[in-house]
Amino acid sequence: MRRRAAALPAAVTILAATGAVGACGGPPAVPEAHFMPIPMSDVIPAPLEARPAPGADFHIEPSTVIAAARSAEVRPTADWLAALLRRGTGFPLPVVAPGSRGSGVISLQLGDAGAALGGEGYTLSVSPSEVRIRANAGAGLFHGAQTLRQLLPAAIETTHAAGPWVVEGGTIVDHPRYPWRAAMLDVARHFFSVADVERYVDELALYKVNVLELHLSDDQGWRIAITSWPRLTTVGGSTAVGGGPGGYFTQAQYREIVAYAASRYITIVPEIDMPGHVNAALASYGELSCDGVAPPLYTGIDVGFSSLCVGRPITMRFVDAVIAELAALTPGPYLSIGGDEAQSTPPSEYASFIAEAARAVSSHGKVPVGWAEIAAARLPPDAVAVYWNIDDAGSSARQAAERGLRVVLAPANHCYLDQKYDPSTVLGLTWAGPISVEQSYDWEPTDYAIPAGRIEGVEAPLWSETLTTMSDIEQMAFPRLPGIAEIGWSPPSTHDWARYRVRLAAQAPRWEAMGIDFDRASGVPWPQT
Ligand code: IFG
Fold first, then answer.
1. Which of 272, 303, 466 to mutate to test the pocket of ligand 1 (most atoms within 8 A of CB)?
2. Pick the CATH number of 180-489 from 3.40.50.2000, 3.40.630.30, 3.20.20.80, 3.40.50.150
3. pLDDT per position as a tens digit, 153-189
């Protein structure tokens, strides 16, 4: 294991390396305490291939430039990378036309990266004169930039920090194992602001997550304005679990979130949960309830007690109107109809409702997504089923695969970030937990007897019954989310808890620099602060 400079201020580390003064100002430090760049093997998710080239390190200097075309495919990454590096180093780091020569170039190159890399893969080559990220598409350039970011000291996440800014020499060839590497955020039980959602998007981007499902409606709240059904938000969005003020996204705010996520190559999948989990909608429009009476707003955390009145004409008019408006606001290809825990919907009517709602999604140009129970219904072949309910021992996942659906694995006893780490965790639920960091990492999508060709990827849901702030989100998502992102991206051969826990611990200085309120959960050798 190559020694790595501890999280000392870089200047002190440099002095220690020269032996001029000891790391703490005392007698000269032991000679091997030389400045060491972050090793490629530390990157999370683990890259497909990483070949360090000792001594071929690249130094970002005041004279360094970023060479990138101004095309739509390249500009989001060039602008994002320039902003990060300028803020961290204080250097000008101008973005210049590609092909610029001279030393100290960070170049983003699009095209001819090899078909094996697909649209999300990249190569990263680091030599003393150039850092080169090459990819077939913008997403690959952006993922390469996240790897470059992780190869720089954590101080790059702060403002005008002291260098040196050294990137380990060598080459990385990388592309994801699965196309669907998702997080899910429940903004219905408790509402979160645009700023909170966009901060979470930035945190997801660091680990190459490329899908964020937004759980926009539930019993306790409806969180997206629907023009043709305004009381969904004015009434249905007016409260939350615990009786707080609730809230909702206007359509302009939702568009802002979607655009921000797209600039980080993250696709938003909006979820309107139905036919269950609909008390907020019923409280807004009594005509949607079978007895025609609007139930009171609900601020508890029970599930399974509400249902749309399936089979009634107004119900499908409602469903179609909501899906039509949401599809028009969503540039991504997917729209989720939820479908979970419909315990108050007559079982004989569940499948026909789901089939009709899925047809509405298709008719508005989107691919239906839902929790894996939807596999009971007739669905279009490209539909996506998200497996979560460990109480069915994987049967809903297998049924989805047998019916030709694409299956995303989100087994609640590994992926539900709303579960406590251990009994002492203040936040979180317990029904599928506790979920230690090891428990969240130590599983494989292939553990569920689903044909490999049916596995679309993984998802890490974060339900918000017990969460109210961004800090709460970060305490539950970090440090467990990066491991699920790694399972979705990296080759199974890299999947080793004993080595991963050390790589995970090395992320802590970066989270501290980013101000992420992560939980110093047990089982991980966190650096001493
Ligand atoms: N199950 C419910 C969620 C949420 C969760 C909390 C799904 C698909 C338990 N449905 O997970 O609404 O309450 O862990």
1. 303
2. 3.20.20.80
3. 999 999 999 999 999 999 999 999 999 999 999 999 9
